[in-house]
Amino acid sequence: MTEPWWAWLAAGLAVAILEVFVPGYLFVGFALGAILSGLLLWLEIWPALWMAEAFVNRVLVFALLSLVAWLLLRKILGVRKGQIKYWDRDINEN
After folding, report:
1. Which of 19, 22, 44, 60 has its CA 20 to 30 A from that of 29?
2. Longest pairwise C-alpha distance within the chain
3. Transmembrane region positions (predicted)?
């Protein structure tokens, strides 16, 4: 392995701290993806994906976990109050 499991956890913690200073929920999915990647590496789940030669696989797992975390948080937290809602039809049309 080129990087230990704690590097993923440290990166997730650093991104989570960055989230505190940035308005909105921009980096939460990346933070959770890095933390989950670190936990998967620590627990040795999917060991073939974490081999030193398979850097692309590690990044792919991180990206997929980040996307899933972001989508789940988006579903749980919902749309922000200040976000614009787009209307696809007019109220005066029949």
Report:
1. 44
2. 63
3. 6-22, 29-49, 55-73
